[in-house]
Amino acid sequence: MRIAAIDIGSNSIHMVIASATRPPDFEVVDREREVVQIGRGSFAARRLRRDAMKRTAAALRRFTQLARRMGADKIVCTATAAVRESSNGGEFLQMCRESAGVTPRVIPAAEEGRIIDIAIRAALRVPPEDALVVDIGGGSTQLVARHDGGPPRVASAPLGALRLTETFLEHDPPAPREVTRLRREIREQLDGVFERLGKVKRSLVYGSSGSVHALAHAAHWMDTGERLRQVNGHVLETASLRRLTRRLTSMPRAQRERLPEVDALRAEIILPGAMVLLEVLERVEADSIVLSDFGLREGLVLDWLANHRQEVSTLEQVVDLRMRSVLALLAKFGPEGPHARHVAELSLSLFDALAPEHGIGREGRELLHYAALLHDVGSAIGYDGHAQHSYYIIEHGNLRGLSEEEVQVIAHVARYHGKGRPRKRDDSFARLPKSARTLVQWLAAILRIAEGLDRSHYQLIRGVRVVRRSGTLTLFARAQRDAQLELWGARRRTEELERLSGARVRIMLEARAERAAARPAEPPLRVVNGSPAAPAPAAARRAPR
């Protein structure tokens, strides 16, 4: 199973695509990053700029397209400080939904810190004693402290590198008074942070984020003249960071851009990041910080895998891309219990039994299977009108391996599994090609009856066979025990099948069929659910009444 985790930070949008091996373990198969700066110009007014929203939504669309092409079964997307604090964040989420088909989840600062802590502990051997995790983003800084192996304490401060640059730095290089004001702001904010965290002196410090990584690359190059070969596990000495910060203070932006792994946009905001990190390390009297190449994205993957172990186990056993996608959507929205799968089995049994009536091929059978599995996913929104809700979820559920028309067929079959039936006055149904409309009508007619045969959701009907004679289709249901509710439910749903087949439809329990067999009758055209039955001996026949 593959999971794509996308983090829309205030400065950059990042994505990691991971293949789950044995949860919670995973292997990274691709990464992508783009500096979009959605927080640009937003922090003072607490309102996202229109150009920044468009730029970020376009990047998200490219990322989700890549994720789907890479076979991602699940896309997890979060947004942090800039969106969290903006008054028009809802407008941005709507833009993402329309552009990329994904709605980012805006997570609170405490949740952001918790997930980062999960990631770093998965990437490094973090001891159970006192430890401090630091992540410096574009809009905020997250600190997570653990004392004697206890639960994490998370504190956040508005000390993001982009936010501080826009608020305090105007000149290039910064004027001394600007640096002084910036340092004062950092110290005042960290006073409150460390008060909330409690005692963290002499803690071992671990860090992630683009800012911390860029500082490590720059410091290593200045100290050794060589490029840093590996980020994960690298130890950045506090003394080295102090020397780098001093040089960055007087370094013009053009010179900062020539540092390794520091592009133009990172060069603009690297100084505030350095000053925040240095102040944190000096506060806790740490000699160094250990870097992790895992951050919020990898933490999202780990957190999702930890909460969906059963789903991952189930999907890993399914080779077919289309079915895996359907099962993933079912796991996300489907109600608990075996009802959906049982209805799918009954639907396929009826489909096979009615093959001479409808003449639909294997591809249609597969679409019925998918629609039957997903027919009740709309209940996640609300039971009333759930068939219509199912249509919406399936249409927007990012089912992979299926054409647009096939998705529409599946969605419409689920839509019409209840009281409503396909009508041309329904705009979406009318837009389907004629062949697709016919397919929807047949598959929905079959699904309606299968749904009725599990009306109680107790799986009392164990099998179905169909006999046609004298213009009547008789569905013989094999039941474990009394199943009058199931018969009642199915009999109320036969109208569409009668219209399409041109035959009267009866539904009986198998036991009644055995009693009826004592009466001689016209030989059936077929008996399905097994081999066709042989005609009765001529002596036993008589004209039908």
Q: Based on Cα principal axes, name the global outline.
A: elongated
Q: What class do helices, strands and sheet pairing give?
A: alpha/beta
> Kindly state the mean pLDDT as a whole number?
87
Radius of gyration equals 31 Å
Taking pLDDT < 50 over at least 5 consecutive residues as the criterion, the unreliable ranges are 513-545
Largest sheet: 6 strands, mixed
Question: Order of strands in the sheet with the most strands?
Answer: 8-7-6-9-11-10
Q: Considering DSSP H and I runs of 4 or more, what fraction of the residues is helical?
A: 40-55%
CATH superfamily of the largest domain: Hypothetical protein af1432
Report the β-strand fraction as a percent range.
15-25%
Integer count of domains: 3
Number of strands: 14
Count of alpha and pi helical runs: 23
What is the terminal-to-terminal distance? 59 Å
